[in-house]
Amino acid sequence: MRLSGRFVRVFHWIAPVLLPLLVLWGRALFGAPLGWLAAFGILAVPFVTIAMYIAPIIVVFDRDAKVARSTRLSYNIASWVTWAALLVMMFTIVDGGDSPPFGSVLSTWGWMSSNASSDIFAGAVLVAFLGWLGTVTTAIIGVVLSRTPGRSPAETSLPA
What we know:
mainly alpha
């Protein structure tokens, strides 16, 4: 399976559940303690999961993508950006609380300080949000293009 259209068409149904859970629990899998972050994450993960399912539901109505059994290139790029940002978030999220802050996975491994990790995390949150906006926008554009009368199928950006 290629790492574009068909893979994205399958993985965009799995990613909304898997990636937020990895951001929450993945730090424990890689050796960083959870702390109070887990309590906040348990409340936030359902909302993130619901928000991430918006774009795949919209893509269902893209007639050209359905025929090609793939997704559009612009949607693929936005999806990969979002997913990569969520993985960066998993490795760089720093937990604070009553005690001294627990470091991120990368600071626990000794690769960077907690402050640098926190700055990278803030950037990854912004990139993930912009990527999510991109997936929703490109999904809507794909539906509109697939339903535009008088447009030839060759005008789409679906991969072969």
